[in-house]
Amino acid sequence: MLIREATVADAEGIAIVHVDSWRTTYKNIIPNDFLAKLSYHKRKASWIENISNEGNHVYLAENGDGRIVGFINGGKRAKNPVADSGDLTAIYILEEFQGMGIGKKLLKQLFLKLEELGFHSILVEVLDRNKSRFFYEAFGAKVIKSEPIKIAGEALTLLVYEWKDTAQVLDAKNVRESGGN
Questions:
Q1: For residue range 130-167, what is the model confidence (pLDDT) as tens digits?
Q2: CA 35, CA 149: separation in Å to the nearest integer?
């Protein structure tokens, strides 16, 4: 599995992973008719913009066939008031590639970049019904805030997690080369 920085040429592959992952991750959480209407074309346009944004850092996982099977995105959100902190804004891996250690590799790559930029704590937002929150918890993230939100008319709860120290994630004992998501 190759982990590398994304380029604009990767926007279509990232969009496919994004849409397909939303459909599997949020099935029975977000209304299925909303998920069915997600568009690869619209996501591709937003990923061209995201990758082109200088303050945004996008890394992807590519299998041996050159297929993009996962990605991670982060930087510093404008709404993040915490000094020396960054944000993990998205991490998605196609369902059939989960549990192979790809998430750990992507997380490590992003955290290395954010640490290089001087961010020593990292925030991530996740729906309370999204099982990926257990992935964050396994790497030491702690819930610091909970707030109600609506997506497609569905009342949900958004959790904000924080890693107070990126070193915990970058520790070789936590970020192994195989296993897990």
A1: 998 999 998 889 999 999 999 999 899 999 999 988 77
A2: 17
* Start-to-end Cα distance in the chain: 13
Question: Is 174's pLDDT higher than 70?
Answer: no
Dist CA 40 CA 144 (whole Å): 33
Structure tokens at 10: 């990767």
| DSSP line for 1-70 | -EEEE--GGGHHHHHHHHHHHHHHHSBTTB-HHHHHT--HHHHHHHHHHHHH-TT-EEEEEE-TTS-EEE
Distance CA 22, CA 64 (A): 24
pTM tops 0.85, yes or no:
yes
Task: Give the three-state DSSP class for 136.
Answer: helix
Query: Which region holds residue 180: left if phi is over 0, alpha if psi is between -120 and 50, else beta?
Result: left
Closest CA to 76 of 124, 23, 109, 28: 124
Give the pLDDT of residue 167. Answer: 75
- Is the pLDDT assigned to residue 175 strictly greater than 50? no
Task: For residue 27, give both structure tokens.
Answer: 């099935």
Q: How many CB atoms lie within 10 A of CB 115?
A: 17
